[in-house]
Each structure stands twice: as structure tokens, then as C-alpha cells.
Amino acid sequence: ALPIWKGWVKKKVILITNDDGINSEGIITLAKALKKLGIVYIVAPDSEQSGVSHSLSLRKPIELKKTGARSYQVGGTPTDCVLLAMTNYDGIRQVSWMKKIVIRKT
Prior knowledge:
The chain is an alpha/beta fold. It has helices at residues 25-34, 78-86, and strands spanning 5-6, 9-10, 12-18, 38-45, 64-68, 71-74, 101-105.
């Protein structure tokens, strides 16, 4: 699912994460609203992570699970989510994040 060319205008690729978890109502609503602006990817924690959103997992393995066409849940913090997406980890490899939009809903 690479960005699509429409005429001469390339769609923006938008990455969304949060600290409320992949199934939170807020991240789903935000993703629906932003679909008008570009291709939306959700990479969010598998559970609520309030209070640790800036921390990084150092001593435990981080699991990545695809939950939809452009949606992934991560067994880690919101920071882990962004790092995995920005380093083109696993199923997200086909997307180049250079000059893309990252939105963090907290």
C-alpha cells in the first residue's frame, strides 16, 4: 500500500499513535477524520499506556501485530510504536516516512 499519485499531487502518509491503546475510540475517530488528508497508518500500544508515553522499552521484547490493512498494535509504549514505524520495521517496510506527518493523540 504505497502512496498513490493522483495527477501530480502525491498523498501524504500520516502515522497516528496514542497512549490509550489501539482500540481506543479517540484514535479510531482521528484516523477516520484524517483519511481525507492522506494515507493513514495506526501504530499504537496494545493496551493503555498513560503515564509512560515518553518512555522506551529496554528490557522486554516488543511484539508487533497487524490488526488491519494499515493498523498495527505494539506490545510497548507510544515511543516504541513511533520508533518501529519510523525505522520501517516488519510489515511497515514498504512505507518511507521521510517528510511524512506523525500525529500523537494523548
